[in-house]
Amino acid sequence: MAKSQFLVNLDAMIIRADFAQTTGNDNSSEIIDRISIADFTTGLTGRLLRKPDFQRETNHWTPAQFFSLLECFINGDLIPSVILWKSPTFLFVIDGGHRLSVLKAWVEDDYGDGPLSLKYFGDSISSNQKKAAERTRKLVADTFGTYQHIKTKLENQEIDAKVSSVLTRALPVQWVKGDAEKAEASFFRINTQGTPLDEIEHSLLEFRKRPIAISARAIIRAGKGHKYWSNFSDENTVVIEDLSKKLHYNLFDPETTSPIKTLDLPLGGSKGIRAALQILINYLSITCLTQTDKDIKIDYGIDDATGDETINVLRKAQKVTSRITGNDNGSLGLHPAIYFYGPSGVHSAPLFLGTTKFIAEKLANNDGEFFKHFTKVRSKIEDFLIVHKDLIATVLQKQGSNKRVNIYSKIIDQIYLAFKNNQTVTEQNIIDWALLTGKIFVGNEKNTSSNFSDEAKSRIFIYSTLKNAPKCPICQGYIDSEKSISYDHIERVEDGGLGNYENGQLTHPYCNQSIKN
Ligand SMILES: [Zn+2]
After folding, report:
1. CB–CB of 49/89 below 8 Å?
2. Distance 170 CA to ligand 1 centre (A)
């Protein structure tokens, strides 16, 4: 896991273009059969390269894989051909996006953190992306040296085998002949064989024009990166980018560190890992729930030609999100450490999505009384969650991974209902609600070393700091003071209360607006 987080992000190296926008095809018989380093510098061919707009991000290689390709290139070892398709205007990369991007990254000295990447990703470059870039740059600098280094040698007439090799080597090119449809078919055929697409990528590709896929890709990059929505009107583009930025902030900021050293935790977990896209797709599917449509997946809706469908999905997500976090009047301001993180301080997708589902269902059912009832028993729910998180994590572990979200949304609903009806909740209740039988052993793994693991440190931090975390004087629930806070007049304004600090207290936005007034 730790290793896979360090993947070099080369997505900015070759930009995307829409296959379908090109009409006709180019059947010229004499076209280039190789791409060399010069094509990325003085040559112009590199500027014509495009990726199909539905292609996954070019971020699947580790620094070592990057290095190995460059090593093969410079040492003259065999590198398989890249496969291109020529539209009337561009050269589309059907296969070989990583190989071509490695060469360009080396020329540009941009391993995911350079000028091209900064322009492309804006301020949404994660610290893992930066670390991977630094690691790659160092690997390259310690062995072959930078491209600039080779260039300087050349200018000084210090020609050696390395310089000569860099100047003469090239990647062989094979061409797909035919129209855009033929090229797209080749793309899918090639990319489902050699490097198999994982389930998320496959569904993102297959349903790339559906609103949930467009929204998820927009949110993950905070409205930056490749604009999958670029065909929509300027007006819709602005709305999509705004909502995506807001949702990104609400769900993925700030970035987490391991071990955890702050209670200001991102609700949706780490943005740096690929799992974040899966979480987003599930999150958007949940926030689109209606009273009648309860089984929504990535294929939801119709292909979005105008952006209206995407805006609709983003607005629904924002509506639910603004009840969970943020400073809007209806926000419960749920504390992520209590609701969305597991016992060892690691973000838990089932807790996050299950809680979201629990709330989204109440909103979909127009259950106007829910927020009031929830607030009345909120502190009991939170105390229960803090004490029984190990048990909850254990019962969820015993479920198939695709069932955990639904099971947890039922468990938290039952906990809420029990407290609302003045009942107590036992450990056996949790086991029953998880539809499990028999006894459940809940135990921490035995530590054979005297050192604290990162997980142990995170756990110690969360439990120590929660003791002193602020609570809302109206409902006694924990306050996420970074994201959701309201300044409440202790003596109400309509009763003559003034804005002196002595007359102020910190509350949840919802409690200030709805419970008190
Ligand atoms: Zn409150």
Report:
1. no
2. 65
Q: Which two tokens stand for residue 73?
A: 């290139």
Torsion, Cα 333 339 343 345, to 10 degrees, reads: -40
Instruction: Give domain limits for the chain.
Output: 3-197, 236-509
Q: Does the pLDDT at position 452 exceed 80? A: yes
Q: At which residue do the structure tokens 């896979």 appear?
A: 4
Q: Report in angstroms the alpha-carbon separations of 463 from 331, 394, 459.
A: 24, 19, 6
Q: What length is written for the chain?
A: 517
Let me know if 199 is exposed, middle or buried by CB neighbors in 10 A (0-12, 13-18, 19+): exposed
Distance between Cα 461 and ligand 1 center (Å): 24
Q: Take residue 338 and report the two structure tokens written for it.
A: 């209590």
Q: What is the pLDDT of residues 287-343, one digit of tens each?
A: 999 999 888 999 999 999 999 999 999 999 999 999 999 999 999 999 999 999 998
> What is the distance in A from the centroid of ligand 1 to the CA of 345?
24
Would you call 142 exposed, middle or buried from its count of C-beta atoms within 10 A (0-12, 13-18, 19+)?
Answer: exposed
CB-count exposure of residue 442 (10 Å: 0-12, 13-18, 19+):
middle
Q: What is the 3-state secondary structure (H, E, C) of 186-209?
A: HHHHHHCCCCCCCHHHHHHHHCCC
SS3 content of the chain, % helix, strand, coil (to 5): 50, 10, 45
Strand partners of residue 174: 83
Measured between alpha carbons, how far is 72 from 336 in angstroms, rounded to an integer? 47
Q: Assess whether the previous peptide bond of 259 is cis (omega < 30° from 0).
A: yes
Between CA 444 and CA 459 the distance in angstroms is 12
Residue 176 CB coordination number (10 Å): 19
Q: How far apart are CA 249 and CA 470, in angstroms?
A: 22
What is residue 355's three-state secondary structure? helix
What is the whole-number distance in angstroms between the Cα of residue 88 and the centre of ligand 1?
61
CA of 472 to the centre of ligand 1 (A): 5
Task: Quote the ligand 1 centre to 389 CA distance (angstroms).
Answer: 22
Amino acid of residue 306: T
The residue written with tokens 């039988």 in the block is 437
Q: Measured in angstroms, how far is the CA atom of residue 297 from the centroid of ligand 1?
A: 33
Q: What is the DSSP string of 426-473?
A: -HHHHHHHTT--S-----PPPP-SSSPPHHHHHHHHHHHHHTTS-B-T
Average pLDDT over residues 155-170: 88
How far apart are alpha carbons 338 and 263 in whole angstroms?
10
> Rounded to whole angstroms, how far apart are CA atoms 186 and 282?
30
Tens of pLDDT, residues 428-442 = 999 999 999 877 777
Total-model pTM: 0.81
